[in-house]
């Protein structure tokens, strides 16, 4: 601390070379800045966190959202959770908070809000999107050992996560899910299968779909249903 | 020089002349009667020839030979041409013989030239020369060539139309052509012969097709074929046999194959239906000679078989009687086995076609496994009574053969188990040996797993006998009371039954309790539950006029009857309360005792067929039967009702799920990584001996295994699955 302060005022130690002083200046400046930033991030955390649990709980998230002027069901909150690698739906730990905000370089609510469009772009990149898509499923598994999500929630999640990209597929698939009886829940394999379905199969003609391949059975049934609808 | 020339000419002319003179029957010759040159003259000529060659006059000798012989042959030719009608061939034959003899002699005389001059100048050797000259001047002479061919073909034609011809003469002439070289034989005879024959048979086959039925036609074709073969042996070159038979085969068989096979009222299908072994055998032997002949027969047979088989298994009339149904299948198989062995010389490809057809249509009916089990049940209950051991084996082997065709062998297993249980428990099996024999056959076919439970059932029966003996031995005081016979069934081995209890009459329940404590005394840790819906009882009854009968009834019926020892009149409700038998069973039980003629040991008011809640029951004191022992309502294996069928089918489907999963895990454990299509194929193959696995069901099981973290999908290639240890 003291050395950097001395550097700032121009007093230099004659024994130290000029270059190292520059990097030291930078390092100390950034470390000071970063530690200041970290402090601000932490402060921001605790402003939303629950006193007794030390975590940001659903209520805190709701407050955050209203401060950011974003609806708490907005997909961008999910994206934020993804950036944080948050494990439990509706809760942020301090490590997760730090991770996310540091990566977004946001230490105030305003900066956080401003970082959202950039975050959206980042998620939409194909390399990231698959990861985000599978994350969103895992994020909704609330119970320990839970492997599947009920149809109702899946429909909402699909709309949220894929609705903007694959409107038609999502709409038809949601319709199908609601009327079929074979499955009451959807597992990760089926969830991922649907994403690949959207990116690979031409829609709505479904001409390149081959039921002999390893598509999850629910998609075979969906395709059959679509084809029956058409005739 | 002059003398030399003279010598040549005289030499050759002399030899030839002697032939001419001999013919004319006068003049001396250098030949004796058998055509041998007298020695002196021979050597004289020989020496002359020798000298000529030695002194370099070979050329002259040779050319002289050629010219002399040629002009001589031209003369001969004229005499042959002059021959009329039938004597043409005879004259030709005669002259040919003469020529041959002369040639021999000339060759001998000119031997030195043959061995020295000719090879060094590459000229044609004497004998061959003689043949060539004959060919060129006689056979290929314009007046003879065509006439010869036509004469020969005419004779063949006449023979084909039934006339007798001079075969010896034909043989000689043909041999002459063969001797002149295979080219001569082929060009001057064989080729035209084959063409004309083709034309002949084309016409004839067309006539036959129009006027004969299939069987007759085939007889005629066979006859013609044999005739041609005979013709070749008698007077043609052996190499012609395959060529002429090809012609007959093509014209008479190959060209009409489809019309013959599909001929209305007499074609292949009719022959099959009427077991015309001889005709079928003939067709087989003829058709195998032509390309796709047997294939054609096989295809028509297969499609006919599949069609009749399909009708058989989908005919609602036939489905009413399962035993009859299976018997018809066996009869059909027997029929075709006979046809294949008697007419198709046990041809393996036909056997295979038969098997694949049976496999096809047997599995068209989903109840085939059930029906086959019912057939076996019928046989083991009564059908095999009095049948010798070998015949029993024959019947069981035939059943096994049908079993092999089944795709859903596990369905058969389920029904077989049910039916076997009923047979064993009612003591209604005709022969223990026959039962065991069939189990052994099933084990050989399907492995130990298939039959272990069935064997368990037999073991239980035996063990129960021993247990009963032990029970009565240790309870001598029970000798006077009702006799109890208990069969203790191990739950896993026997088909699952709903657990039904009822209130047994006091005497029985006390006895049963004694048994229970006896049994549990020797087998701790077990649980016994009485299956009152499965037992039988023999009840001695005395009716109103003192008539005594022994009634063989079910346990339920016994409970009902015993109530009447303490009451004359009982309402349905009272009976229900006292016995606690489930309503539907109770109603059937009462109906069988009150509403069936000849078995009405009870009387019902009102007399209707249906059982109403308020109905009253009495002992029928007027009951009569000419038999002392009366059997009322035994448990018999029947064709399942619709809801029962659904239930069985569902249980089978449920049982298949773990089997499919086990197969998937087994395969993935050894392969580690495998793609989707290969898994489906491997699993199907592994389960083939029990049932035909549905690819959709396999997919479902795979997904279930993925969910339970036994497998995972490869992240890059989603068609691949990986085994998770």
Written description of the protein model:
The complex is a heterodimer of chains A (231) and B (725). Chain A has 231 residues and is mainly α. Chain A has 11 helices and 2 strands. Chain A has helices at 2-8, 18-48, 58-68, 75-84, 94-104, 109-124, 126-139, 151-162, 167-179, 188-200, 217-230, and strands spanning 148-150, 185-187. Chain A has a two-stranded antiparallel ribbon. In chain A, helix 4 packs across helix 5, helix 4 (75-84) crosses helix 6 and helix 8 packs antiparallel against helix 9 (167-179). The longest helix of chain A has 31 residues, at 18-48. Residues 1-13 of chain A have low confidence and may be disordered. Chain B contains 30 helices and 9 strands. In chain B, strand 8 (711-713) and strand 9 form a beta hairpin. Residues 19-35 of chain B have low confidence and may be disordered. Chains A and B meet through helix 10 of A and helix 30 of B. Chain A: Residues 1-21 are annotated as: Disordered. Chain A: Pfam families: Cullin_binding. Chain A: Neddylation of cullins play an essential role in the regulation of SCF-type complexes activity. Chain A: It comes from Hevea brasiliensis (Para rubber tree).
Uncertain stretches of chain B: 19-35
Radius of gyration of chain B: 47 Å
The shape of chain B is: elongated
Q: How do the strands line up in the largest sheet of chain B?
A: 1-2-6
How many individual helices of chain B? 30
Largest sheet of chain B: 3 strands, mixed
Assembly type = heterodimer
Q: Which fold name corresponds to the CATH topology of the largest domain in chain A?
A: Recoverin, domain 1
Major sheet of chain A: order of its strands?
1-2
The total of beta strands of chain A comes to 2
CATH class of the largest domain in chain A: Mainly Alpha
* Series of secondary-structure elements of chain A, N-terminal to C-terminal: HHHHHHHEHHEHH
Write the CATH homologous superfamily of the largest domain in chain A: Cullin, PONY binding domain
Q: How many DSSP H or I helices of chain A?
A: 11
Q: Identify the biggest protein-protein contact and residues per side.
A: A-B, 13 and 14 residues
Function (chain A): Neddylation of cullins play an essential role in the regulation of SCF-type complexes activity.
Region (Disordered) (chain A): 1-21
Organism (chain A): Hevea brasiliensis
Domain DCUN1 (chain A): 36-227
